[in-house]
Design a protein that fits this description.
alpha/beta; seven-stranded mixed beta sheet; two-stranded antiparallel ribbon; 9 strands; 26% helix; globular
């Protein structure tokens, strides 16, 4: 059974193949000397997630070999090319039965979002029915927190690159928005031009 420290599990979606980056998996892009996937895990650990699951897809063997993901549960998503929705489903499935009461979800390609934003969103956890998301000038972004009561509904609607968007739109009134614009920058590393944002 989960104790108070692991009620909120961390979930990193790191399966993308970086189509617009010439097929370089985002998980392995270097930022501050280490692969991006390590940064995402460190953010969740700093936010207090003792259990962290990482969904891998593109070149998962290389990611396992090159990234230090000690004590993480590595989840292979064979359908990663379908988009983020399949990775979200795989990640939530992997948490079923873990005792976690919520998942704090980070995307691997947002290095401008650090521990301070993750801590704020995690603090919005109350129980299995919690839904929370970081907001940037009032606009919903990442990280997001999904109470376990929502996992099945989210998974049922997670298709293509839409992830949880459809479910969250339906449940907008239930979402606690946590302003993080003062502590994080929600840019994505999607294109060659975005690589300039890596340090």
């Amino acid at each position: 059974m989960a104790g108070p420290t692991d009620e909120v599990a961390g979930l990193v979606l790191a399966a993308g193949g970086g189509r617009r980056l010439g097929g370089r998996p985002k998980a392995l892009l270097t930022h501050r000397g280490r692969p991006l996937v390590e940064h995402a895990v460190a953010v969740l650990r700093a936010a207090g997630c003792t259990r962290v699951h990482v969904v891998l897809g593109a070149r998962s063997g290389d990611v396992r070999e090159r990234a230090r993901l000690t004590d993480c549960v590595l989840v292979d998503n064979p359908g990663w090319e379908e988009g983020m929705g399949s990775s979200l489903r795989a990640g939530l499935d992997s948490l079923a039965g873990s005792g976690a009461r919520a998942a704090l979800v980070c995307l691997v390609d947002q290095p401008g979002i650090g521990a301070r934003a993750a801590v704020r969103v995690r603090a919005a956890f109350k129980d299995d029915t919690s839904l929370a998301a970081a907001a940037y000038d009032g606009v919903r972004g990442h990280p997001v927190l999904f109470g376990a009561a929502h996992w099945a509904g989210i998974a049922a609607r997670a298709t293509g690159d839409r992830g949880a968007r459809a479910y969250l739109k339906e449940h907008a009134a239930e979402i606690t928005l946590v302003e993080c614009g003062d502590v994080a920058q929600p840019y994505d590393i999607d294109t060659e031009a975005d690589l300039a944002r890596l340090e």
